[in-house]
Each structure stands twice: as C-alpha cells, then as structure tokens.
C-alpha cells in the first residue's frame, strides 16, 4: 500500500495512474477505520478498482469545535488494517492540501435538506458536499463508495453527482453491524465502559420496538421507544422518525421505509437507520 501525506506526491502518483488508465475507486473517510469502511474498500477491490482510501477529518463539516478537536484518531491502527485489506493507496492530506485558500462552502444541493441531521447540525452537509467535491476534483475517481449508515449523506452525495453530471459511479453499500445490531461508527471509540452498557440496552430496545412496528405499524410505538430510552438516561434525542428511502419524506407505513435515529449517549452522537420492510 502506498501512503501519501502531501498533495505533490499524490499528484505525481495520480498522473502515473491516469497514464496507465487505471480505474480509480475512492473510499473517503475521516479515519478510525472500522468494518463498515473496510466493506467499502472490499467492494471497490472486488470490482477491480485501484482503491484509494482518504483519511481527512474535515473541519468544515463540524458545527462544534470541541467535536472536531475530539474526533477519534487512530492513524497507526488505520494504516495496519488498510494494508491488511489490500488498500492500494492511502492518502492523508492536510488541511492546506484540501483548503489552500478561503473556501466557498457548497450549498448547491437543496434536496433532502432541513430534516434529520441537516435540521440538527446546520451547515454540516454543506461542509460534506464541499469536501467530497474537492476530493473528486483532486482524485478524479471513476467510482465512489458510501455506506448506508449515513443515509442522508449518501442521498445528498448521490444527488450531487447526478445534478452535476459527474462521470463517477456511485455505490451505496449496506451498513455493517456489530454483534449488538448497531452499525459500526468511528465515534464509538469514544464510549466509556458505562456508555457501552447503555448502548447495548438501547440497541435491545430499538430492535424490540422494530419487531412491534413490523407487526403493527403505529407511530405511538416510536413515542413509547423514546420514552423507554429516556428512562435509560438518554437525555438528548435528535430524532426517531420513519421516513421513505427514496425521498426521505415521513412515512405513514413501513413500505420502503426505514427508522432513522440520532441521539447522544453522554457526549457521543449515535446515528443509525433500520429497514422496516
Ligand atoms: O462520512 C464521512 O466519514 C465523512 O462525512 C466524509 C464523507 C468522509 C466527508 O468528510
């Protein structure tokens, strides 16, 4: 695996790749690589792309400086697991590589906005679209791989590629789940042992209520779930909502719908979604 941490070296290698007509598959990440990221890399490798993983903790998508500063970092371990999983190139740009001058934050996707995480983290998706677009311009991938755990992000980037007619194949990849049924997330490295116990109980409650919803779809089941979570000590809940997969509109039934959840266990934000059909 090549490891490059500055743009000049990266550009040199990229021009060789382009000369050799390599097809590039991009897996953009913010590091603390887990099984979810690795599944994206494995998919890219399986499709025979020259697979590039980027690790860049993007400052413009954080609306809270403390959250940005505390975002988990695990570079040595990341390098090891990416090597073990046959990543072709790991690019670790610095802030100046990505944002050499004052950046125009992209606000050109209006779909899937003002709901879910966009309502709770204003500006977050503008920062995500901005950095992903900059990575596309630097790396010129033929394909890009996103995980369904961050479903709203995935919908927004997919739409961004379509609206701008970018010649990039978009792969949406299923969530990879831990033994407790929740999707992997880099943020869970910040859990204390007590947080982990609450997390497991939360997961049990979510799945119990999903089983009830599956038998008899009734929005009161969600209210009941939220009530049970507050009894567990979950104080900050951003949303528990059932929405349609295609347009992210609120659903009145479980057809083509998912339960979207976002809440905090102490300082750690949990987001996930669960297919209901
Ligand atoms: O999902 C993430 O890790 C980030 O939002 C992304 C897509 C790498 C952009 O910084």
Features:
9 strands; Pantoate--beta-alanine Ligase, Chain: A,domain 2; 10 helices; globular; three-stranded antiparallel sheet; alpha/beta; Rossmann fold; binds pantoate; six-stranded parallel sheet; 277 residues
Chart the SSEs and their pairings.
Elements: E1 2-4, H1 7-19, E2 24-29, H2 35-46, E3 50-55, H3 65-70, H4 75-84, E4 89-91, H5 95-98, H6 116-120, H7 124-139, E5 143-147, H8 151-163, E6 169-173, H9 193-215, H10 220-231, E7 237-244, E8 257-265, E9 268-275
Pantoate (PAF) binds near residues 29, 131 and 132.
Q: Tell me the fraction of residues in β-strands, as a range.
A: 15-25%
Remind me, CATH topology of the largest domain? Rossmann fold
Quick one: biggest sheet? 6 strands, parallel
Name of the CATH superfamily of the largest domain = HUPs
Total count of domains: 2
The side-by-side strand order for the widest beta sheet comes to 1-4-3-2-5-6
Q: Gyration radius, to the nearest Å?
A: 19 Å
- For the record, what CATH class of the largest domain applies? Alpha Beta
What is the residue-averaged pLDDT? 96
**Number of helices, counting only DSSP H or I runs of 4 residues or more:** 10
Q: Tell me which CATH architecture of the largest domain applies here.
A: 3-Layer(aba) Sandwich
The SSE order reads EHEHEHHEHHHEHEHHEEE
Helix and strand composition category: alpha/beta
What is the tally of beta strands?
A: 9
Shape summary: globular
Q: In whole angstroms, how far apart are the ends?
A: 40 Å
Stretches where pLDDT is under 50 for at least 5 consecutive residues are none
What compounds are bound to the protein? pantoate
Q: What's the helical proportion of residues?
A: 40-55%
